[in-house]
Amino acid sequence: MQLSYDPRRNIAYLRLREPSGTQVETVRLSDEVKVDLAADGTVYGVELLNANAQLRACDGGHFVLVDETADRRVEVPLPEVA
Question: Is the pTM of this model over 0.85?
Answer without folding.
Answer: no
